[in-house]
Amino acid sequence: MTSTPHAASPQLRPPAGERYPAFKRHIPERLFYLLPALMWLALAIRYRSLTLPSAANPAMEAGGLWGESKSQGLDLFGPLGRAQLARFACLQCDADAPLDCALAAMAEAGLDFPVVAKPDRGYQGWGVRLIQRAEDLAAYLAVQPPGAAVLLQELVDLPGEAGIFYLRHPDQARGRIVSMAFVYPPHVIGDGRRSVAQLVQADKVLRPNSAIYRGRHPESWETVPGPGAFHVLTNARSARLGAVYRDALPLVTPQLEALIDEISREIPDFHFGRFDIRFRSPEDLGAARDFRILELNGAGAEMLHFWAGDGTLRQAYRALWRQYRWLFAIGATMRARGARPVGLRGMIRLQRQQEALRRIYPPSS
């Protein structure tokens, strides 16, 4: 999920209840994904290709499975999708005057400060920064590796965020929304007794990121939120940083599904992926109005609803198994139509490239 910062619009608070599923609190991430890795391997044996899902969305680099360019996916949008898309500019960090090039690209795209800067080949919110002025942008560009691409995007002043997962089999005329989750920033709820620091230390999910939260808002780290107060730790809404998810599929309306389907069918050979969006209110989203698309994630995207606080391990694995079966089946159909999956060497190259970039990206804000 994107971890784009947001402007100071009113927060949408998650419903009461557990913030994280029990399995997230008790099972390390690598151990959690062991069974899904075996699911993937079983399907790869059945379909005779480990990288077959990269053929599911042939117009996207590697089908959007790993290490793809964000801007390349956004450039595929048709007229209807572009009307909902947050404005953006993409630039290469290899110019003699990177700030001048960036300002020119912003002007051409109709962008003004503040903007959100993020790596074009980003991952889990690494390197996402809120840029308030030209000096901030110059500093951000100065730490980018030579030749890296950076995405500059308008700051969308809408309080809600959602991940909408879309699926359309190539043999079907229309697709559908198979998952929608609302995404909330990492936060604590005050009890009137403990400080923000103590509330973070008491939470097993938040504790490993305490240094990050303190760095974001040092002025409030030792303050004591009142009973029931909603205190945001960071505006970056990333699972890595402790974002909170709620299943919102029951709120999908025919109007919203129809619009997402139309936008998706404008994208050449797009069958499987997740739209990360910002919206004004659940009611507006249901009416298919007042929302903006931030990112399009392809074959490597994950449904987010099973990370809700009331989710179970069984539900999570069932959702992933269903997702992988859809993905391989779509890839097989597209392969039969002439689409070529990325080879294993090509996928390893993309993975290594992304990992190398991740190590040198600046901290998120």
Automatic annotation (TrEMBL):
Top-level taxonomic group: Bacteria
Name this polypeptide is given: ATP-grasp domain-containing protein
Organism: Paracoccus siganidrum
